[in-house]
């Protein structure tokens, strides 16, 4: 028996070191004998050798107990192989050789949730795998890299009573009974795939099914699987899957390609979901939905994630990534496709607002601090640390710019060519740009710089109006600050979608370069500074820039409050209208501490008071308009951050708004928005609930007792989770007298619903300021709390450290110390989750000196601990630099 672990510290892996695999695999046959505590896997690999390289056979294998090994039917002597430091070296293999190994793994002892593991209690839980990025090497020996594409035949065997359901990726290819109460099932996947897309599931699961016929005539059975007690909550996801499939046929001409499509829900999952070929696995949070336990946001998230994983079947699976540096090739593109889909299914401007807010809250801080990395990183130590907002969300913004550049038809021509060229292969970002460009006879190489350069560009805009010449000159300049390892920055191609408004809020026709165009135009800024002269402009205009957020940059434009108010009132671009409000709110925020325009706060309040009375504005957009940028976004604009101060100031800003709107108007609106006894999920009903929540929050700032009484009643009478959680959240955050009772009730009501209970933890972790830590420490010792479940750990610790700046960043540093202790404990169980939560320390260098010092001390203490995982030490090391 041999067990081999990787050494803890490793040198980085570099993109520039990429080499084609010396050995690939044509076919994989896996026989898996499943048991909760020990599972045995026999694998037969037919090997292909790259004739241009003469390296001996080397396979990855992590924590495997090697039971038997043979080459071309001959058992190997100890001298013919070596298993050490997570690699297996074999002598004597040649092109066409067949390597057979048998290994043992321990699913019930696997707390990292990577490889084969147990979900749920050992008596009732089920077994499943997670292989992205490098989990397959925890199951068997393999060249575990995405550019090795093989055809898989998988035979599962297990005790029938304990594991009635046996699933693997691909098409079913027989099943039957065995002696002594065991049974088997075989799956064949006809499409070559990388090992990270392998999956199996085994246990007691229920299903709901639907027949589907693809546009090109294939009959497919769609099946959702979950544990019996939640199977009724899978219907919404099944509907969403069908919508996604139809949409991808229409929008991208992509059809599904197997006879079955299985989706399985688990409560124990490190990420959101996983696109394993033919057998998606979902964090239950993104699959289960019902009105009593899911909010409207969660319904939208389920729809989005179902679509995202389904879309991966083409962008990721049929065309996969050459290496993990190309991760955004599949993730950025798939996020973009999901965003388009969600925009089509729901409201496009609202989706854009939601996505840009997410980008600003998660990706901008990443790009501005020590964890900054390009969308295509140049090096990593632990690939799991690179499933980041930069790779996903900024990656999607880059695809959006390319799509915008090519136009709808051009982009479709480009993706058609991309799929044609690279189907069944592992591709690079260059391949993607080349396919898009070639299909349109355009050179898109300049955009490659966006993939290589980290940091958020600042786009400075200055407008000058010459009344005599009726000319408006717009000077646009860009600057990207240095980021770790990248002191020098190049100018990038920045598409700026723009329009001009006159003083009455009417759009002006644009005369640029002698041509008359429409009222909206895209100019590309690709130098450090450029001037654009617009002619025949009748009066001093107000520019609307970067419409629809046409590039992921920070726009710096010296608007006056009046100009922003004008855009907020008149801009036809829903996103920019909201954006004008956000910028005005930022000016108002600054004015509270005596900086900038003293009139800004009044201007913001007046403008929103007008919007509040404007029946033409959709309820959901109004709710978003009435919400100023979050504390993290405000912090991002400051060089010395005091989170307590930011919290207080943002509250004050909102209080002024509430005062301006008036308690009576808020109360009237709240009453008008009260909803019926059943949850409707149509857009208008969701919008009402969103606005109702916002109105109640504002009311609480001016008539606290009244608002709390209403919230308590809303909690009791709520038809669904959206209204119920909104009420609970308000009472808990305000530490209202009614909070204890609703918390106790919620806990009782949802005692058997872990996803709902997660929200119970999350809301309490978000109580602002001083009281947060005591709360969180107490909840940490609650019997329902466990570090072993990622959703639960994220609910409490993730929300505390990443979504509650004033609670976490205490001046006494106790928040940091408590959190670091938890991280160390978590790291021993699940390094991926520990590392992800640890990114909450990002940005500590910009804290005011007292907190900075406290954070620094804590981080150094954590870094100095023995036995940290590669995942956590990489994040802590990078954060500290
Ligand atoms: N590939 C998954 C997705 O984005 C995310 C994931 C990564 C899941 C790594 C598990 C492990 O759709
Ligand atoms: Zn994805």
Automatic annotation (TrEMBL):
It catalyses: Release of an N-terminal amino acid, Xaa-|-Yaa- from a peptide, amide or arylamide. Xaa is preferably Ala, but may be most amino acids including Pro (slow action). When a terminal hydrophobic residue is followed by a prolyl residue, the two may be released as an intact Xaa-Pro dipeptide. Transmembrane segments: none annotated. Its EC number is 3.4.11.2. It comes from Dyella caseinilytica. It comes from the Bacteria. Residues 562-880 form the Peptidase M1 alanyl aminopeptidase C-terminal domain. Keywords: Aminopeptidase, Hydrolase, Metal-binding, Metalloprotease, Protease, Zinc. Residues 111-197 form the Aminopeptidase N-like N-terminal domain. This is Aminopeptidase N. Belongs to the peptidase M1 family. GO terms for molecular function: aminopeptidase activity. SUPFAM superfamilies: Leukotriene A4 hydrolase N-terminal domain (SSF63737), Metalloproteases ('zincins'), catalytic domain (SSF55486). Its cofactor is Zn(2+). Residues 455-557 form the Peptidase M1 alanyl aminopeptidase Ig-like fold domain. Residues 236-445 form the Peptidase M1 membrane alanine aminopeptidase domain. PANTHER family: PUROMYCIN-SENSITIVE AMINOPEPTIDASE (PTHR46322:SF1). The lineage of its organism: Bacteria, Pseudomonadati, Pseudomonadota, Gammaproteobacteria, Lysobacterales.
């Amino acid at each position: 028996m041999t067990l081999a672990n990787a050494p803890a510290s490793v040198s980085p892996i570099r993109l520039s070191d990429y080499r084609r695999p010396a050995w690939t695999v044509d076919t994989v046959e896996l026989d898996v004998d499943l048991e909760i505590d020990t599972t045995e896997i026999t694998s037969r690999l037919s090997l292909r050798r790259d004739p241009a390289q003469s390296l001996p056979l080397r396979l990855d294998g992590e924590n495997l107990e090697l039971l038997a090994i043979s080459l071309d039917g001959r058992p190997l002597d100890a001298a013919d192989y070596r298993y050490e430091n997570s690699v297996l070296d074999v002598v004597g293999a040649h092109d066409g050789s067949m390597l057979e190994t048998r290994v043992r793994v321990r699913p019930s002892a696997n707390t990292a949730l990577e490889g084969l593991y147990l979900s749920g209690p050992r008596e009732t839980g089920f077994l499943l795998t997670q292989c992205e990025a490098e989990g397959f090497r925890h199951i068997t020996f393999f060249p575990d890299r995405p550019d090795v594409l093989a055809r898989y035949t998988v035979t599962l065997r297990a005790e029938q009573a304990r594991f009635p359901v046996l699933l693997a990726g691909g098409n079913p290819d027989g099943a039957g009974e065995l002696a002594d109460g065991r049974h088997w099932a075989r799956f064949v996947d006809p499409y070559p795939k990388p090992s990270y897309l392998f999956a199996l599931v085994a246990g007691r699961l229920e299903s709901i099914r639907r027949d589907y016929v693809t546009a090109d005539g294939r009959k497919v059975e769609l099946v959702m699987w979950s544990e019996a007690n939640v199977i009724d909550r899978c219907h919404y996801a099944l509907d969403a899957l069908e919508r996604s499939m139809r949409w991808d046929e229409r929008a991208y001409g992509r059809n599904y390609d197997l006879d079955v499509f299985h989706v399985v829900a688990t409560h124990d999952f490190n990420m959101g979901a996983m696109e394993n070929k033919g057998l998606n696995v979902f964090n239950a949070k993104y699959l289960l939905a019902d009105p009593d336990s899911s909010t409207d946001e969660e319904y939208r998230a389920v729809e989005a994630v179902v679509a995202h994983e389904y879309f991966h079947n083409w962008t990721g699976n049929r065309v996969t990534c050459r290496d993990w540096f190309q991760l955004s090739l599949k993730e950025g593109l798939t996020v973009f496709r999901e965003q388009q889909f969600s925009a089509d299914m729901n409201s496009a401007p609202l989706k854009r607002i939601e996505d840009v807010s997410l980008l600003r809250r998660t990706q901008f801080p990443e790009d501005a601090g020590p964890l900054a990395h390009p969308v295509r990183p140049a090096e990593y130590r632990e690939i799991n640390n690179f499933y980041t907002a930069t790779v996903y969300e900024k990656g999607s913004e880059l695809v959006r710019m390319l799509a915008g550049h090519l136009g709808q038809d051009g982009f479709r021509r480009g993706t058609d060519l991309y799929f044609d060229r690279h189907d069944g292969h592992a591709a690079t970002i260059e391949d993607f740009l080349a396919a898009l460009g070639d299909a349109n006879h355009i050179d898109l190489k300049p955009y490659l710089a966006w993939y290589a350069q980290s940091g958020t560009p600042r786009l400075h805009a200055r407008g000058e109006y010459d009344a005599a010449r009726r000319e408006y000159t717009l000077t646009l300049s860009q600057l990207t600050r240095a980021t770790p390892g990248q002191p020098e920055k190049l100018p990038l191609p920045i598409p700026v979608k723009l329009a001009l408004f006159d003083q009455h809020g009417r759009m002006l026709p644009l005369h640029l370069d002698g041509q008359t165009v429409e009222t909206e135009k895209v100019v590309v800024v690709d130098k450090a500074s450029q001037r654009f002269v617009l002619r025949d402009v009748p009066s001093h205009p107000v520019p609307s820039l970067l419409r629809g957020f046409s590039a992921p940059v920070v726009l710096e434009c010296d608007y006056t409050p009046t100009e922003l108010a004008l855009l907020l009132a008149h801009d036809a671009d829903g996103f920019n209208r909201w954006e004008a409000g956000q910028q005005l709110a930022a000016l108002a925020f600054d004015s509270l501490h005596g900086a900038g325009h003293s009139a800004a706060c009044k201007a913001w309040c007046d403008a929103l008071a007008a919007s509040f009375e404007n029946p033409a504005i959709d309820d959901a957009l109004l709710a978003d308009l009435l919400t100023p940028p979050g504390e993290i976004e405000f912090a991002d604009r400051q060089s010395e951050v005091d989170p307590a101060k930011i919290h207080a100031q943002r509250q004050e800003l909102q209080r002024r708004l509430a005062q301006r709107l008036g308690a009576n108007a808020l109360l009237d609106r709240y009453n008008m928005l009260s909803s019926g006894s059943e949850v409707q999920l149509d857009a208008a009903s969701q919008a009402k609930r969103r606005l109702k929540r916002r109105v109640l929050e504002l009311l609480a700032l001016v008539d606290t007792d009244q608002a709390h009484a209403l919230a308590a009643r809303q909690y009791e009478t709520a038809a669904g989770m959206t209204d119920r959680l909104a009420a609970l959240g308000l009472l808990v955050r305000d530490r209202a007298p009614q909070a204890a009772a609703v918390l106790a009730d919620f806990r009782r009501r949802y005692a058997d619903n872990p996803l709902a209970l997660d929200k119970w933890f999350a809301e309490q972790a978000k109580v602002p300021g001083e009281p947060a830590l005591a709360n969180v420490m107490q909840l940490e010792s609650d019997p329902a709390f466990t570090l072993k479940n990622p959703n639960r750990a994220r609910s409490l610790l993730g929300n505390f450290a990443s979504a509650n700046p004033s609670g976490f960043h205490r001046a006494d540093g106790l928040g940091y110390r408590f959190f670091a202790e938890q991280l160390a404990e978590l790291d021993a169980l699940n390094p991926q989750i520990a590392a992800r939560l640890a990114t909450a320390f990002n940005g500590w260098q910009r804290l005011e000196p007292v907190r900075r010092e406290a954070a620094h001390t804590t981080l150094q203490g954590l870094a100095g601990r023995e036995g940290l995982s590669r995942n956590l030490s990489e994040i802590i090391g990078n954060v500290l630099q």
